[in-house]
Amino acid sequence: MTTATSRPLHEITLLSAAERLKGRPKLCSDCGICSSSYRPLLPQVCVFVENKSEQIERKLHGRNRNDGDELLFGISRSIHVIRMAKQNPEAQWSGIVTALGALLLERGMVDGVITTATVPGTHHAPLPILARTPAEVIASARNKPCLSPNLDVLDQVRESGVRRLAFIGTSCQVHALRAIQDQLDLEKLYVIGIPCTDNVAYPDMLRFLKVASKSPETIVHHEFMQDFRVWMRHEDGHIEKVNYVDLDVSALGGERGIFPAACLSCFDYQNTLTDITIGYLAAPLPPTERWQWTMVRTEVGEELFSVIRPFLEFGTFTQRGNRLVGISEYVRMLKRPRGRPPFPIRALIAWMQRNRGPRGMEFARSVIEMKLLRNLQYVRDEHSRMEPRIVPCHVYRALAQYAQVYEEEFGRPLYNGQRPTTNTAV
């Protein structure tokens, strides 16, 4: 019988989660290691076997995270609000990530770029490729929020003799890449990260769009935006907007019914082990202005930022609201889930979120804290024996201000064992 790992990549990404993850560990995001020749190294590199993010941080930065925003966003040398001065209309945002990858090839700084194209005939199915020309990188623009085996392409890197490589990927992929980096025999590696949460298998993405949209087959981009609505851009250019609170998640079997176990066990939304991370979460509204934010994390990241900087416009960070009350209430909802309220109440909630909810940096903090809390509870409910191996210490530090309400609701300490320590330098 043909297995997922023996299929070409453009077929693998079209499979259901059950088909492509059959025979894999309980927690698997199909990062590509399992389908590559590097599979024997799985126990040493997989973030869901042992989370080595704090060990890798010490190697990259000489220390672990300090208290404050570093606990949520990761270690950075600088952060910026930016967008391309000449925007790519086909990109999810302004096209910074693909423009940077293309520039690296144009200037001969790399021989190839691992990026994610789209399976022909689809809008959202990911196809990992080793791009050798700027045009190939530019053509890979658009978000594909589905499981993608990007590290499978490392075999092509070795076979083609590429020695200078740029990698564009998500946090689980970057963790494995960093763990294997010294064994790749590369002269240079640039790691460009995109923030990532709750990817799904491609058929589940189609299910979600059918629930969320009046015309799911024409959606080319969609994103969970900072105004508490999902923005869905269609082929004709019009944008459909749906309030978060109006999404019928129960029709999908709930979060645990659609999201893979690995994504529900991930604690690195902000892709913190990269050289540079480029996303949107703390960027100012309105979304039509396509502002993004970037975290320059390493010396290599500063080199990357200097390459793209002449092509950027710079904005300013904004901040509004106080997330603490809302996140405390979210802890209570984790313990006692509530059904979808009737429309008049949903309309009031949506208005309150848009007009009173957190914005800018405070919005980013709130989203990341909710994901950390949700995923910590998922691990405790479904994979409790794995908690010491896959939940980094900084997670407990980041959530310390909710320890009391968590203990009141769940009857156990937020901390796993001893109180987590603060920053560890080497």
Explain how this protein is built.
This protein has 426 residues and is of the alpha/beta class. It is 35% helix and 15% strand. The radius of gyration is 21 Å and the shape is globular. The termini are far apart. Residues 1-5 have low confidence and may be disordered.
Number of strands: 12
User: Uncertain regions: pLDDT < 50 for 5+ in a row?
Assistant: 1-5
Number of helices in the DSSP assignment: 18
Given the helix and strand composition, which structural class is it? alpha/beta
Distance N to C terminus: 50 Å
| Rounded radius of gyration (Å) | 21 Å
- Which sheet architecture does the biggest sheet show? 8 strands, mixed
> Helices and strands, in N-to-C order?
HHHHHEHEEHHEHEHEEEHEEHEEHHHHHH
Report mean pLDDT, rounded to a whole number: 94
Count of discrete domains? 2
Output the strand order for the largest sheet: 3-2-4-5-9-10-1-11
Please indicate the percent range of residues in DSSP E strands (runs of 2 or more): 5-15%
Q: Categorize the overall geometry.
A: globular
Query: What is the helix content?
Result: 25-40%
List the helices and strands and how they pair.
Blueprint lengths: L8 H4 L4 H4 L21 H4 L7 H9 L8 H4 L4 E7 L11 H11 L5 E7 L7 E6 L2 H5 L15 H7 L3 E6 L1 H10 L7 E6 L8 H11 L6 E6 L4 E6 L4 E5 L11 H4 L17 E4 L12 E5 L2 H10 L3 E3 L4 E2 L3 H12 L7 H14 L3 H23 L4 H4 L2 H6 L4 H8 L16
Helix pairs in contact: 13-15, 13-18
